[in-house]
DNA sequence: AAAGTCAGCAACCGCTCCACT
DNA sequence: GAGTGGAGCGGTTGCTGACTT
């Protein structure tokens, strides 16, 4: 018997979204919010399944999506978090503002995985001269969404670095010298950090353990600050001393 | 210039999780 | 506690376009 499909697929459109469909979805959500995804396409007048609408909104149309190439520190953070969390793309995405799980997953499979496999010495590079559809769109529509942070500007992030080896190649990154902040991991640092942690719903339901496995470690008040310190210090060190503190 | 190859990425599919009854 | 439905997640597919031959 099995479960009924998520939506009635008869007569529903599949495949790439047209600009008109995008506009309908955007204006509907701006007006009413997404509410019930299943009911949304009908109410908005879209011949799409709710799941498709949700995916399109989450991965592409959301105003806070950051377009553009991954910066060096974002790449490092993805690699580090992947070591800790495994293929939990949504958990990884929660640590990267404006990046989606789908995007991170794509980057991982197309680039970072190879970069890691190449044994650190011969670092794989994406095809340098190839300009993708996405990049072309960014070139032409760079300012189309005023809410979208620009790739060159990472000043909205507060990053930390304790690793000089990372900063050796920071000329490849969009980080400027003044964006790199050396951490003062005193009590006020942790106090601030955990006040951010407790106030962030995106990370509050994740389970992480201090050994790097994705189990048995839940953020929240049932764990001591010392436990969290140990975990975050480990992540921090694995990241080569680069952390996006705004997401903690 | 044309054909073949391959990388990038948007989107789909199937499954699990979770809240609600 | 069991059943149901919606949301979310991760794996995978397939199209597009840049690059190579």
TrEMBL record:
Gene Ontology CC: one annotated term: nucleus
Polar residues composition-biased segments: 141-152
Places the protein is found: Nucleus
Coiled coil: none
Domain of life: Eukaryota
Region annotation Disordered: where it falls in the sequence: 119-178
GO molecular function: DNA binding
UniProt biased composition (Low complexity): 153-165
Start and end residues of each Myb-like domain: 9-61, 62-112
Annotated protein name in UniProt: Myb-related protein Myb4
Origin species: Carex littledalei
Any Pfam family: Myb_DNA-binding
Lineage per the UniProt record: Eukaryota, Viridiplantae, Streptophyta, Embryophyta, Tracheophyta
Span of the signal peptide: none
């Amino acid at each position: 018997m099995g479960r009924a499909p998520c939506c009635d697929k008869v007569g529903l459109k599949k495949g790439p979204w047209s600009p008109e469909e995008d506009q309908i979805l955007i204006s509907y959500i701006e007006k009413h919010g997404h509410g019930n995804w299943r009911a949304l396409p009908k109410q908005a007048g879209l011949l799409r399944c709710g799941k498709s609408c949700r995916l399109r909104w989450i991965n592409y149309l959301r105003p806070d999506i950051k377009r553009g190439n991954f910066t060096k520190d974002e790449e490092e953070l993805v690699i580090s978090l992947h070591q800790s969390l495994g293929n939990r793309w949504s958990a990884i995405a929660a640590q990267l503002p404006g990046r989606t799980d789908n995007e991170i997953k794509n980057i991982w499979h197309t680039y970072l995985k190879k970069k890691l496999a190449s044994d650190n010495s011969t670092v794989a590079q994406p095809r340098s001269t190839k300009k993708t559809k996405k990049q072309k769109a960014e070139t032409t529509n760079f300012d189309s969404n005023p809410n979208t942070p620009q790739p060159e500007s990472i000043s909205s992030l507060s990053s930390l670095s304790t690793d000089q080896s990372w900063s050796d190649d920071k000329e490849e990154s969009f980080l400027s010298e003044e964006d790199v902040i050396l951490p003062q991991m005193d009590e006020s640092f942790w106090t601030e950090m955990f006040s951010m942690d407790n106030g962030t719903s995106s990370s509050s339901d994740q389970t992480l353990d201090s050994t790097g496995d994705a189990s048995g470690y839940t953020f929240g008040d049932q764990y001591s600050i010392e436990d969290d310190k140990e975990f975050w210090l480990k992540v921090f060190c694995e990241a080569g001393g680069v952390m996006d503190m705004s997401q903690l």
